[in-house]
Amino acid sequence: MSIDLSVLNGPQRQAVECTEGPLLVLAGAGSGKTRVLTFRIAHLVNDLGVAPWEILAITFTNKAAKEMQTRVADIIGPRSRGMWVSTFHSMCVRMLRADAERLGFSRNFTIYDDSDSNRLVKEIMAELDIDPRRFPIKALRGRISQAKNELMVPGDFTARVSDPVGKVAARVYERLQDRLRKANAFDFDDLLLYGYLLLKHYPDALEAYQERFRYIMVDEYQDTNHAQYEITRLLAARHRNIMVVGDDDQSIYSWRGADLRNILDFEEDYPSCTTVKLEQNYRSVGNVLKAANAVIANNTERKVKNLFTEAQDGDPVKVYCASDERDEGRWIAGRIEQRRGEGMSYNQMAVFYRTNAQSRMIEDMFLRAGVPYRIVGGTRFFERQEISDVMAYLTCVVNPSDDIAAKRVVNVPRRGVGKTTVELLEGRARETGATFLQEAEMALADQSLRAATRTALGEFLGVLEAGRSFSGDLRRVVEAIIDQSGLIAALEAEGTDEAHGRIDNIREFLGVVDEFADTHTDEDALFEAPTAVSEADGEDGPGVRTLRGDSLADFIEWVRLRTDLDAAGDDGNAVTLMTVHASKGLEFDCVFVAGMEESLFPSARSIQESASVEEERRLAYVAITRARKYLYLTYASQRTIYGQTQVNPVSRFIHEIPPEVRSAVGVGSAGFSGTGWEKRGSRRGIAGSGTEAGEGRVFGRSSASGAGERARRGKTGFSSASEGRSGARATFSSGDKVSHKTFGAGVVTKVDGDTIFVRFSKTGQVKKLLKDYAPIVKV
Ligand code: ATP
Ligand code: MG
């Protein structure tokens, strides 16, 4: 049976059915671009008999890739297997795993994350005697990253730069690439750079991929950088069946090298291309769409689009003026509970902010109010010290050349390998060209080292050996490393709450290992790469060599390629907190955008330059267009952020929304100098409707807060607003069994003034709560 394309509108259908030749779908937010891409894949496979392995679809995040795969599988079933649906980075990893040797790497290469790269660059700067105060590491790394994204190898870059920072960056870049190669490691930018170099310098490899990928599709094309552009161009050069979809108004990653020209010049690159415009928005109610259209109309450099909807106008966009950031967080929590009371689930709601620094206060207020939330981005699980340590051990097991990983854990936990020893081994490695681990091994017989040092080095190498002895059984390797390294024992000896938290994280890491094992069946662990050496044409297509991945190496790669943006799990029922950048492509019934103030959104830096205000405006457009039904914009008349108190005017983006589609709710009385909502909440047990207090009229904010607060607390059944700070709550002490509205059962581990620490049995994690405000009772 063929795919039912009647669920698409005319232009959408045209884009799905236009399968041959270059195709550009340029359309505004929520017009069905991603949906069209998904249907097109299903149509190719199901209706036109295209083999799944002939299809390459590129998405912006791993999560989006997974979603697309699931959606295609929903339409055409298991036939969807074998398609490459991935990010550019994951695709390059696949290509490099197959052909790393040609580029001077081996297949078990490591992928460096940001902190690994930082360590290495720092080391190199020290070696080259570069003063980090004159040449900040951030600036140098920025230049190197830019060079890589523009596909300049060190030689090209050195020849091109003339400014002082550039010249220093060129020296660092040169050495960095040598060191990465020696460590058998790629950083994120390298994945694209070497992916490109492989295609460019090995025609047989290029031809094999070109032959294979008859249909190439790229989502969010407006945010591709030059490297991604070139990779796509090379791959598509043979069949030229390339479809790119994007929205120039949603280009928000220029600071990371994304180049809007890639989409704007597509018609020039492929003069024969078909262009389809999608103009109907299916996502948002009328007022939200009108607000978005009006805001983006202020940008001058854009292709003008006419986006309409057949949906009802819906509620106006609601604008709330908070007295400060605490009031803002509290008010948002109140509205969320209200929507929840009306039957909307938490995971249909999201709060966006311009910078991660804003999340702390919102989180704080959510914790107090008992609103469950999940944060996307920020400090990620895998960036925690103890997790990075375990990862470094695992990396040493797989890739013994990775000096950065080896040096990271040679003395973690402390086993008596001091700085002097590390520097000695480093120096020897530099002289002999051996790796750090090889030098460590040689040092075992070196009588000039203290016996204790040799024993310690021996222990360390023994841990890695133990890990290696279980290769093939991922879970056992990880367990062996955790047990034998002594990481947990050392933390236990420390005995602090923090140390216990770290132990819990390490245990949770084993859960991550299991998650990986569950989601990566044997079949997924196989990755296919076409090679010039054509083998028998198997199920995977001509010239495809099927390689079995090493499970530990696959696991490390999987962890490394998880990005901030992927952390948005669909698990659990929780409100999503994320930066606007991370929200791209997503949609929610109810969206809050916090911090709509000049200097915050648009950012202070962008205000200096009109070009970057345009990028901020695109960001505002992305934020607004994520909302299906309800959109709330909040700003604070006074805000403390980065340790400073600021008074900022309301964001220009609010002014740009026509007055007839927005309404002020619970506008705060200017000049109110409350010290925090909890005080007001406790002072005023003012009766209120308990619904959208103050909506549509100017209302004393504090009383609106009181009403919302009361309604919420009433609902939780823990305490009423008037009890707030009265001390009528239970007195807690260590060892008390308690129950929290959101986190469930737990035990108090420590009481410190107003603060209590509770270890929750469900997660094993210790949370810090304010005892008077957390929805918590003794059981
Ligand atoms: P963005 O620019 O934000 O990435 P998009 O253009 O990719 O948006 P989609 O996410 O594909 O848009 O679609 C937006 C919403 O509209 C989705 O919920 C999708 O299912 C729905 N939608 C798209 N086209 C149709 C249609 N023809 N009929 C019904 N619903 C549709
Ligand atoms: Mg999309």
UniProtKB/TrEMBL annotation:
UniProt entry keywords in alphabetical sequence: ATP-binding, DNA-binding, Helicase, Hydrolase, Isomerase, Nucleotide-binding
GO biological process: recombinational repair; response to radiation
Family membership: Belongs to the helicase family. UvrD subfamily.
Region (Disordered): 676-736
Swiss-Prot/TrEMBL catalytic activity: ATP + H2O = ADP + phosphate + H(+); Couples ATP hydrolysis with the unwinding of duplex DNA by translocating in the 3'-5' direction
Protein name: DNA 3'-5' helicase
Origin species: Berryella intestinalis
Biased composition (Low complexity): 719-730
EC annotation from Swiss-Prot or TrEMBL: 5.6.2.4
The organism's place on the tree of life at top rank: Bacteria
SUPFAM superfamilies given in the database record: P-loop containing nucleoside triphosphate hydrolases (SSF52540)
Phylogenetic classification of the source organism: Bacteria, Bacillati, Actinomycetota, Coriobacteriia, Eggerthellales
